[in-house]
Specification:
single chain; alpha/beta; ten-stranded mixed sheet; D-Maltodextrin-Binding Protein, domain 2; 13 strands
């Protein structure tokens, strides 16, 4: 009898949780409205930015538009000030934040994230024809360039073997120009920024395997919008599984950086 009671209790608890989860109304609200409003900083290439015609484009834009297509809803982009983006989410100016948002413990206290859909962080880039440098350990004693004031500076100091020299530049493109000219051995740079730049100069540079530091990106929702988050997560999972996310990644980064097995 006790076992039967326990089994029934578990079933009731699971059913209650399922009803509560499905009953938050967040997905139904978006589905009935026929649109998902997404908040973003529209000056963050290659995740989301305006092209020469003023259109919002980028990796996140293509991914979200594909999600909307599969779910039968429109995607509406709402540019916003990044420093107040979470407050704007809870003010219901949009339904979620999809714009290369790093998952941090502090943010996890305020918003509910999807699983990471792309891994960001700091990587090291070398010339394509550089045969002597194959891994981060090979940068010991080498000349490494970074953008001044960026997280790349601290990452360069965390290399497995100390660099011979760390040179700071005003911008990443200036550092890459010195790398191409053989005045540097490597550039430490943010993953998405670096791969986007390298994709624009095919055949010139390559990234060393792995990350120096890691920062995962996720889509952020209000804590109470569980049903909506689950529906978006399910669709992203399907896009990763069928190769669609990889295709979008190769468009913007020249390679697939969405495969969790490679992180």
């Amino acid at each position: 009898m006790k076992r039967l009671f326990a089994a029934v209790l578990v079933m009731v608890m699971c059913l209650s949780a399922a009803v509560a989860f499905a009953g938050d109304g967040s997905w139904d609200r978006v589905k009935n409205a026929g649109k998902l409003v997404i908040g973003l900083d529209d000056a963050f290439p290659p995740m989301g930015f305006r092209n020469a015609d003023g259109e919002i484009v980028g990796f996140d834009v293509d991914a979200a538009e594909e999600v909307g297509k599969r779910l039968g809803i429109d995607i509406v982009w709402q540019p916003t000030e990044w420093k107040g983006v979470i407050n704007s989410l809870y003010a219901k100016k949009f339904d979620c934040i999809w714009n290369g948002m790093t998952i941090t413990p502090e943010r996890q206290q305020k918003v509910a994230f999807t699983k990471p859909y792309i891994m960001d962080g700091q990587i090291a880039a070398v010339r394509m024809d550089e045969a002597a440098i194959k891994k981060h350990e090979d940068l010991g004693g080498k000349k490494v360039g970074v953008q001044a004031g960026s997280p790349a500076l601290e990452a360069a100091k965390k290399l497995p073997k100390e660099a011979g020299e760390i040179r700071e530049y005003d911008t990443n493109p200036k550092a890459f120009l010195d790398l191409e000219a053989d005045r540097l051995d490597a550039v430490v740079v943010d993953n998405v920024t670096g791969r986007y730049y390298m994709a624009s100069r095919p055949g010139k540079f390559r990234a060393l395997p792995g990350y120096i530091t890691k920062e995962a990106f996720g889509v952020a929702f209000r804590m109470e919008d569980n049903a909506l988050r689950a529906m978006i997560q399910k669709t992203i999972d399907e896009m990763i599984a069928d190769g669609t996310m990889g295709k979008i990644s190769r468009k913007w980064f020249g390679e697939d950086v969405t495969n969790p097995a490679e992180w």
